[in-house]
Fold:
Amino acid sequence: MSLTCVGSIAFDAVKTPFGERERMLGGAATHFALAASFFDTVHVVGPVGDDFGDAEFATLRTRGTVTDDVEQVAGGKTFFWKGVYSENLNQRETLVTDLNVFETFEPKLSQASRDCDVLFLANIQPDLQLGVREQCQGAKFVAMDSMDLWINIAHESLVKVIQAVDCVILNDEELEMLTGAPNLFQAAHAVLEMGPTAVVAKQGKYGAALYTKDGFFALPAYPLREVADPTGAGDSFAGGFVGYIASKGGEVTHDDLVRAMVHGTAVASYNVEEFGTERVARLTRDEVDARVADLQRMTSFSV
Amino acid sequence: MSLTCVGSIAFDAVKTPFGERERMLGGAATHFALAASFFDTVHVVGPVGDDFGDAEFATLRTRGTVTDDVEQVAGGKTFFWKGVYSENLNQRETLVTDLNVFETFEPKLSQASRDCDVLFLANIQPDLQLGVREQCQGAKFVAMDSMDLWINIAHESLVKVIQAVDCVILNDEELEMLTGAPNLFQAAHAVLEMGPTAVVAKQGKYGAALYTKDGFFALPAYPLREVADPTGAGDSFAGGFVGYIASKGGEVTHDDLVRAMVHGTAVASYNVEEFGTERVARLTRDEVDARVADLQRMTSFSV
Structure:
């Protein structure tokens, strides 16, 4: 199948208790593409500026990702984010958000990107997500992310996007905020009632949970002695998750989504071991599969 | 095997968004005993006052729990706790803590209680826990709970208790606070280095994780549409967990601890569906086993 992802490409400056980087490749679409590229050819759609160079393009193209629809805006600067994490990595503070070329981004999809079987709408303004969704009429499986900002200021548009996708991937707090439900169970079911067949609740260091009409599945995060930088973990998870779905043909079953959860969790666990894209850029499929096997051993039991 | 639990017996006043109770049976030893009584005969050791009546004793004795070592202090009042939960149950505020007879509690164990094969030291002052541990020389498996108060004001004593037990059951925040480690992985391993063979990290609505020298296991909480009252969930979990271990003979393996995690999670999921002891008091073993089977289905996958 073919897979298209629309979202941000960025430079990040990040400081954690375990190190810092002044300027590294980041952005939701970047982390997604690097993770999904293990499973299928990814078409990335997103804007960059003149400051986005060959080295960054080369990293984006890791494992065959197609960057024809990465729009380089002449005279523009790439989206820049700067943040600092707390001692136990539980909180992060945003110090700088320079939207730059991302501020006026209007996704322009080539025919190749529009012809995708699977589509991932990373976190961008919901009306733009809906526009992309409408351009990809042939997509058999569409997943989306969002953020608290759009829940607060563009709720109606966001609900329209949710109604037009198959799978919503959000943090559990975002799902509760979106629906006003008192707990994750009710929030996830409220989203299922809007139309999607699957809801994934990202739970950070606790892992992730999947709700479908056919059931519930939950998986812990992979246990790590050291986490260097959590930036992009959620997008790496989404990349492994959606990429796995794209690699399967035919109808997407509950069990496919379960296996997608495991692959997303495995890739995300590597992402956080180093800064930015450093670890996933040189990751191998064998390493992914090793952690998939570990996760199976760490969660299975006989009664 | 025989199982002894030493801890608090209380009256609780609880208010949640889903109801309130002015005065109901509570306390760590109470919730533990009700949960563990599915698996083995429990001997409860704890103090109560004159206000503790036949109805409360009857509930404590559910499924054969022995209350010979429940010390009724003449002229005394039972430990009283009053708390209120936030809208999403994520926070709780303590309004009243009247220690009453619990303030001067010195555990007095009959020979029957001292002869236990398995011992659970619920959250009481660490020096008292150590005294009980020393009285139960024949115990083959000893587990303990504690709280942030003792981590802060009795750290040295607490470490001595930890060095003398097989299994530590704490919240993940408490494990990090106890050890000063930056994450749960390092905190759990630091506790394993103190002597115990198993560390259980309770993670509230996210479930629980197990660390042993042989590996890692994690299990989500059972997904519930409605949670009425989280009070006693951790103690019910401990009761199901330790009770399951007590019901097995011989050496305690990693796989036994894994199955104990599942049984603890199943019992705790019922505890929170109603207030205080209401649900677990009338729970059946078949209902416990049904959720154990559910949990297996909800967490297993093929690759």
Notes: The mean pLDDT of chain A is 97.
